Batch of 3 targets.
Target 1
Amino acid sequence: MPTIAIDLSRKIFYIGFMSKTDITILLASPRGFCAGVDRAIQIVELALQKYGEPVYVRHEIVHNKFVVDSLRDKGAIFVEELDEIPDDGRPVIFSAHGVPKKVPQDAKERDMFYIDATCPLVSKVHREAERYHKDGKTIILIGHEGHPEVIGTMGQLPKGAVVLVETVEDVAGVQVDNADNLAWCSQTTLSVDDTSDIVDALQRRFPDIHGPHKEDICYATTNRQAAVKVIAPKSDALIVIGAPNSSNSNRLVEVAKSYGCRHAMMVQRASDIDWRWFENVKTLGLTAGASAPETLVDEVIEAVRKVYNVTVEEVEIVEEDVTFKVPRSLTA
């Protein structure tokens, strides 16, 4: 085992070794970037190439500090609201999470040149909600209050047209005037299991409620959770590489704990690893949220190699081949 001395006052870790011990990393696959995240990042990079610096981005393009900092270094300027952007004619990009309908309307009123990087799967939920509303239905949205995707979806429709529920318990408190004319949609990055339980509760309370033909949770979220379900029971500990504000990354930690690995944690970078946490760990599960690049996975593996004799076993449950096209205006 490594011998570790810690100076907490200076936040410095001294690691010494009599000899390295063995550890097996079960590397989940699929992991990391999904097609929507990859598309959004490409949109910013292509806009910088085509139009030069700066390019403004409303909200973090994706929830990952490493990605955001990398794009900032290339010339992207990140803002939270349009009123932070000067009227200088520079491109404005909307993040992958989607925006309320008022945002592009405000951009048009200011004659801004904007590019929408909303994930196509999030846009699908927006269109579903609009279609249900057009049919006179009240929409129940399953999601997390305050998440940008939820704000964007609820912002597609007039105030009061969408009721948000976060848990099974919330379903009992839903108050609607037209209980026989309801429909549900969901945030794309939720726990598959938790969402299924909420849908079941909705259907028990409102037997006539309508839902999408295909569940709104995106393929990448589903696949990454499924991979964690396979490796979690075999792991003494499990690391998810992701950001604290990343919904899909937080769900991976929850799934790992629910499926047999109570010793699960999230880190943003290898430098966040607390080596004291590795005591008695022989098998380490490793995955990355949909906004985390593969370079951060490699970084964590290399950090573990400095402390242990590492064997990496990739556990692939499905091969992903989904891609989303970027706007033609950026490639023409």
Target 2
Amino acid sequence: MKHSALSRTRRILPLALAILGVAAAAFVARRPLLMSAPRCLGGHWHGCYDTENGVVLMTLVALPLAALTVWALASGRRAAGSAEAWRMSLAEVGMVYGTVPFVWMTMMPGPAAGIVDGRVSVVPLRDLVTMGTFGIVGNLLVFAALGFFAPMRFVAMASLPRILALGAACSVLVETAQYVLRLDRVSSVDDVLVNAAGAALAGLASRAWWRTSTEVPSDEPRIENEEALLT
């Protein structure tokens, strides 16, 4: 009975923490978000999806849909006999829901996009001092969801160095795209460092729920008794 209750708590806790975090962020930023509400609710692209406030607002609006998707995926897996239905479903949706909005914001073009050439900053820590608190926190969050949920979904990602490498690789792709597409943004090595650090820190936060090589893959039937291997 105790083991069942503990297992249920471990399944629910990540979702509860995610919802609490989103709710806290929404409360803190409620005033600027409401400024974008008329444009977003009116279906206007300009003033909504091309602004950070608008993207954050629409991310919050999409939260019920994300939760419904988790439930649908988990229900299907449970019907198929999966023992890790909720964890895997939450991880899959969480990676997408928590990463796409931040990547969208980093790919927003500046006022001189398409006019000026791409700019690169390859000196470590030079841009870090000019980011400010908001910039550092924002960069830490870009791939935080990926770092948090990837090791919960994939056994191969259940390693801090691999999470760090994943965050760095994804960040390099974003910085490269900013440069190639001439978005009037600076492709900085400091962005890569902070993005990777954010993924690693988030991975540490989800350490208790990582998948390990000793677990039976959720999409394969469990063998209740080792003697079944001999029959």
Target 3
Amino acid sequence: MAGKKVLIAYGTRYGSTEEISQKIAEILENKGLEVQLVDLKKTKSKEWPSLENFDGVLVGSSIKIFKWMNEPQEFLKKHKVEIQKRVKILGLFVSCGTASVPENCEKAKNDYLEKVMAKIGIEADIYDAFGGVYDFSESSRMGSLDKRMLKMGLKEMAKDSGIKYDEKGRNDFRDWDQIRSFAEKFAELMKT
């Protein structure tokens, strides 16, 4: 895999998707791949890298109010024709509350990945939905309105699933083994 390059382009609101992207990059680099990370929200669209220099592309988004961030969707639309040619390995992932409960992961994949692929008209080689972070701590990036909305959603999710959470702390529902496995499977696809 020496010399193969991967682009990880992501959109993050509060940092969870960014942390997932960084972990995936670390795993891929340990597998001998060269990785470039791009925060699509912080980078102007005209400065987004072309896909021509990459052998594989991973695109990730956080989910808020049941939707992808605009930037990752725009990135996929911008590169739709190139992606449809299927000459590069494409992986997609989201970080969302739905996948915070393992039993709901398939629903999250359908709602947030399969439907988005169908809407845009692309097909990924690999995709997955990871749990999210509910940060109610003082150092949280979330504003008070977002915290209130997420607390209401988390209370409902806790009622339905029995998960435990801290109303004043940082609640990380990401499964790092799942994320590691996804990255390793992507690296395997890069060998072909």
